[in-house]
Amino acid sequence: MSELEEKERKPSEESTDDSEEEDSEEEPKLKYERLANGVTEILQTDAASCMTVHDKFLALGTHFGKVFLLDVQGNVTQKYEISSVKINQISLDESGEHVGICSEDGKVQVFGLYTREGFHESFDCPIKVVALHPQFSKSNNKQFVTGGNKLFLYERNWLNRWKTSTLHEGEGSITNIKWRANLIAWANNVGVKIYDISTKQRITNVLRDNTCLRPDMYPCSLCWKDNTTLIIGWGSSVKICSVKERDPTEMRDLPSRYVEIVSAFETEFFISGLAPLADQLVTLYYVKENSDHMEEEFRARPRLDIIQPLPESCEEISSDALTVRNFQENECRDYRLEHSEGESLFYIISPKDIVVAKERDQDDHIDWLLDKKKYEEALMAAEISFKNIKRHDVQKIGMAYINHLVEKGDYDTAARKCQKVLGKNMDLWENEVYRFKTIGQLKAISQYLPRGDLRLRPAIYEMILHEFLMTDYEGFATLIREWPGELYNNMTIVQAVTNHLKKDPTNSILLTTLAELYTYDQRYDRALEIYLRLRHKDVYQLIHKHNLFSSIEDKIVLLMDFDKEKAVDMLLDNEDKISTDRVVEELKDRPELLHVYLHKLFKRDHHKGQKYHEKQISLYAEYDRPNLLPFLRDSTHCPLEKALEICQQRHFVEETVFLLSRMGNCRRALQMIMEELGDVDKAIEFAKEQDDAELWEDLISYSIDKPPFITGLLNNIGTHVDPIILIHRIKEGMEIPNLRDSLVKILQDYNLQILLREGCKKILVADSLSLLHKMHRTQMRGVRVDEENICEACHVTILPSDTAQPFSVVVFHCRHMFHKECLPSQGTIPGVQYCNICSAKRRGPGSGILDMKK
């Protein structure tokens, strides 16, 4: 609810009166201002009785019989002395070129504002209303109606004379007339009628509901929403009527049109005026002083409401109580509501005041949001509608929002909004930075400062870095990482950090930050020293990124101590920059690190570090025995005697066995397995690998007096050695564990071998027979011989040109063809000949022949 308050002002400041809103979270729909300038002067000595609105100007009638033409600002452009008494009604045609005026003393005047033509008449009774034809300026529409006790229609005929006809009488005074297109609506004491001027028929009569109210005190309000929709307000009742065409089949003697009431409802107060606003209604209410539910301060003030009509009720959208001048002395009949269809302007007319209501635009919406301190919503609205706002600036609203946040103490949000609001204005940025410094909140704004193509002066960034360096080492380190080094003077910051390190030389955060600063300044060797001292994970990235391999040749041990895996991978990936010999030289005093490096080198390429294989034997034996045997197996460059010596010294049996077998001393190797390891399965496996009959004999001889070994042999040697040999050599009476099971397994294995052989034989025979049948079928097929074939010996066409002559042709199964006389004599086997071409294949496909004779 908004309240229009009249303010004390000097005579020269009478042009504006503001609309003051109550403290409500609901935004009003309309804004208000008084029509001032010339209107103020007129109403100081006179009183408004009526007013008509045109898109171009206003026409105001007064109680002293004067009519003023005003511009939309209220300035007087024309004055007419019509009568000495009250002007009751002013009517304008759509073009705004003709005006109709009636007064309380019965005078009626219709004249052109820009021509001399006119109608002047005086009646013996007050004329309450007059209405011109909307197209009055056209020659064939020179019509108007007046209303007093009767409703008269005036028409100019072809002789340029006015013809009068009575449209209605006998139901009291005509209090209101509205003319739209071909329809005239008027109100009298009984109700509202509508007349169709084109068919000269009255089409409806809408009766008055509140018959207890005096028509002269609570007059009817009429308003056409469009050419077929009439809005009626009378007392506290509202009706919306729609004029429709009647179905021709139902017409009979009825008018061609009829009226349907689409909405009818009661309101809380008395209606003084109505106007359409899209699909809603603007209603001007008169509030009686004795209303029980109205607060004392609001009683008797008129209200302007926006309502949404429903079929049988309405929904209130907004409601504003207006403090017009002398509202305490006004009655319902003293208020009028006129509207301008083109601009959605609504004029509230009272005897001593005229108020203009207009829809609130985006600027007004932003005003309301700012007044309610809803700065974020105001900024968002301004950004969305920046092309349509006229009084506001997006940046100024943003600055107001930032100021509000700072006042609230929400410094982080204020700093974040600076990024959007200040944009590319570097002067504003610097001002804000100094303001945040003044309030001790440089940290809040630091992360939002410009860092791209547009930048502040280096001194600004240095000031913030010094602030962090004094109070927050971690924050300082974060800024150094996030800010490009070009934003500030790097040497200045390096010096400041160095000074702080003098007080705290082991501070890892400051040391790391100093290394990053050295990196920005391309002093990579200094940065590398710090990273290595701190064992920092970025040391390897720094080396790779800036190619610092020449700087780390004497720091390989440090790198290995920090992270062996990463260091070795880096060294091996860059052998062209740091040679293997150099690495081995650096690691000679750290054999455990040397082993890691050489082991990975060997894994990558078995031949690259071959000259270090002898050294690796002892390194594997000392630090990584599990990988010693795989190394011995894969290496072809290590000296076997040296390896055997080391393994024997350290009693590495498995490795010694491998070396002995590789050096050809398999019997000694087998002996070690049996004596040192006592593992018959490993011994059997070793014998299988070597596949040497003498080894099997040695194994049997060694095992013959050891029952567990005999059991192992019986279970495993069946496919390599005849078990009977072993069984015959077993001493009589020797107790052998699980002998029965071992013998059963031998028999089962033998039976399995017999079954496999028989199965293989059956498959072989079946396959041979199948292939024999296939070959026989193939060789029995005929071979096509025609003129295109030639003799492979003489290269003449195989068939003679005269086939009637006798001829003889030999065709081999290899498809080679010969004249019989071109073949050599038969071989040693009578009746068998071979293809000369395929004779290299003994009894190949050319061994068979087809002999053709004629």
Automatic annotation (TrEMBL):
Stretches assigned to the RING-type domain: 791-839
Keyword Cell inner membrane annotated: no
Biased composition (Acidic residues): 14-26
Superkingdom of source: Eukaryota
Matching PROSITE patterns: CHCR, ZF_RING_2
Transmembrane annotation, as ranges: none
Major localization class: cytoplasm
Disordered: region residues: 1-29
UniProt biased composition (Basic and acidic residues): 1-13
Keywords in alphabetical order: Autophagy, Cytoplasm, Cytoplasmic vesicle, Endosome, Golgi apparatus, Lysosome, Membrane, Metal-binding, Protein transport, Transport, Zinc, Zinc-finger
Annotated localization: Cytoplasm, Cytosol; Early endosome membrane; Endosome membrane; Late endosome membrane
InterPro entries: Beta-prop_Vps41, Clathrin_H-chain/VPS_repeat, TPR-like_helical_dom_sf, Vps41, Vps41/Vps8, WD40/YVTN_repeat-like_dom_sf, WD40_repeat_dom_sf, Znf_RING
One GO BP: cellular response to starvation
Membrane-related topology note: Peripheral membrane protein
CHCR repeat feature ranges: 568-712
Keyword match Electron transport: no
Gene Ontology terms for molecular function: zinc ion binding
Annotated SMART domains: CLH
Gene Ontology CC: clathrin-coated vesicle; cytosol; early endosome membrane; Golgi apparatus; HOPS complex; late endosome membrane; lysosomal membrane
Role noted for this protein: Plays a role in vesicle-mediated protein trafficking to lysosomal compartments including the endocytic membrane transport pathways.
Family affiliation: Belongs to the VPS41 family.
Name of the protein this chain belongs to: Vacuolar protein sorting-associated protein 41 homolog
Lineage: Eukaryota, Metazoa, Chordata, Craniata, Vertebrata
